[in-house]
Amino acid sequence: MIPVTRNWLNAAAGALVPAQVLTIFSPNGTQLVQYSREVKNPNYGPVCANHWVAAMDGGGSKGDILSGNATNTELNIGVLDVGKAITTLLTNTTLEGLTATLTSGFAGLGGADFAPLGTYIVSQIKTDKSNLRYVFNLRDFGLKLQNLCYLTGDDGWPTSSSDPHTLWMEPMDLLTDVLQNQCGYPAANINSAAIAAYRASLFHGRTLKWELDQPTQGKALLQQELFSPLAGYGFWNYAGQFTPYFPLPTAAPAPAYPLTTRNIKSPIPTFDAGPFVAELVHMMDYDGQNYNTSVGGIYAPAITAYGLPDLTTKQSRGLHSANGGVLYALLAQQALFRRYAMKPRLLKLRCFWPVVQCEIGDLVSVTHALIPDKATGLGLNNHWFEITGKDIDWDKAEVSFDLLDVNWLNATPLQIAPNGTPAWASATLTQKATYGYVNEGQLVY
């Protein structure tokens, strides 16, 4: 969730016209140049001196725990070359490679109340409209993830099958090592708070072991060995920080934002069918040639309802049964089955601008009388979804979301039964609804 100020929220509630500000910084972090744009309302004054932004496109994001991958769409911003000011700037200043931020607020707000929508690197600049404007191509900081990692083996020779590089560490330590030490990202580009939270909870005290027989690209290593087998992904957040995301079970999850007819613009939102994952196997205990252990799982209710799906296979050289690999596999399978076994619907809807503060991975609630509920019929009421995709229409000041149905989170957790609780057959309706029971064949207790 992108942080916003109280003034921003008040202005958003007043339906004021949104504005965007592009700021490019010099290598020492000082502001070099700034351009602004407001949407469809010439009555407000400019929010900065260079009110020259004429067009914007891109800037969306998608995340998928099934593949372990997330993508950020490049952002293109067209800026008018008023008085040849940009041409003059470019004759003595190189902007490519510099850091740029995009903030958004409302006319009348001060710069401190503008919300940070994205932090980028200036990738390239080109002319447009017969050289009357320049287009700034901005992208995330992911280029360094193409670097080859772990170039030397344990013995100091180039990494190979005869000179492997051994890694023995917790998953979040591997992520930090790849980002910081192998790819050279500064602390400002690493979401250390999110990493620390996962290290202290989901991945606490469990180590993985890899023996790399060749240098590996950072992005491929993280996706294939960490995010995909463990059901997560990493994305670049609004602050330009690489941020891991795993669907961590919590005792009391809560939606970050309510979506209702007050902020949903789509008259009748549409939906697609989600992936069908009800049979899954994790391959582990790699010995340099083969995976010697497989941990499989099925989601019986889905197979009963829909039949046997295609087998989904995950493998990681770092998973070992002697070091918690089976536990990691079962946690990942639980996350994937919960999301994809019952053929979830992927809801697509378009919202008004204030919802721009949501990011992929955020949990939202949806209430809409015209959206069908797969379980109960027409109409959703406080139905929970996870944001898996976000796109922005800058001209219309609208935000589109892809939402994955995760309403199973919107349930009261069953409690551990105290001593003296009767078996299922003798329990009251209140006890059955309150406590967890185990079903083994015909015996329920």
Cα-to-Cα separation, first versus last residue: 42 Å
- Domain count, please report it: 4
Q: Mean of residue pLDDT?
A: 89
Radius of gyration: 25 Å
What share of the residues does DSSP label as strand, in percent? Answer: 35-45%
How would you sum up the global shape?
A: globular
Spans where pLDDT lies below 50 across 5 or more residues: 40-46, 440-445
Q: What class do helices, strands and sheet pairing give? A: alpha+beta
Biggest sheet details: 8 strands, mixed
Extended strand count? 26
Give keywords.
36% strand, 17% helix, seven-stranded antiparallel beta sheet, 4 domains, disordered C terminus, 445 residues, single chain, alpha+beta, 8 helices
If you had to describe this structure to a student in words, what would you say it looks like?
By secondary structure, this protein is of the alpha+beta class. It has 4 domains: 6-140, no CATH class; 144-245, no CATH class; 257-409, no CATH class; 414-445, no CATH class. Helices cover 17% and strands 36% of the residues. It has helices at 6-13, 85-92, 171-182, 192-199, 218-227, 300-306, 325-340, 429-434, and strands spanning 18-25, 31-38, 53-58, 61-64, 69-72, 75-80, 99-106, 115-128, 133-139, 148-149, 165-169, 208-212, 216-217, 233-236, 242-245, 257-259, 270-273, 279-286, 291-298, 312-315, 345-352, 363-373, 377-393, 398-405, 439-440, 443-444. Helix 3 packs antiparallel against helix 4.
Blueprint (SSEs and pairs):
Layout: H1 6-13, E1 18-25, E2 31-38, E3 53-58, E4 61-64, E5 69-72, E6 75-80, H2 85-92, E7 99-106, E8 115-128, E9 133-139, E10 148-149, E11 165-169, H3 171-182, H4 192-199, E12 208-212, E13 216-217, H5 218-227, E14 233-236, E15 242-245, E16 257-259, E17 270-273, E18 279-286, E19 291-298, H6 300-306, E20 312-315, H7 325-340, E21 345-352, E22 363-373, E23 377-393, E24 398-405, H8 429-434, E25 439-440, E26 443-444
Parallel strand pairs: 16-22, 18-20
Antiparallel strand pairs: 1-2, 1-7, 3-6, 4-5, 4-23, 6-9, 7-8, 8-9, 10-13, 11-12, 14-15, 17-21, 18-19, 21-24, 22-23, 23-24, 25-26
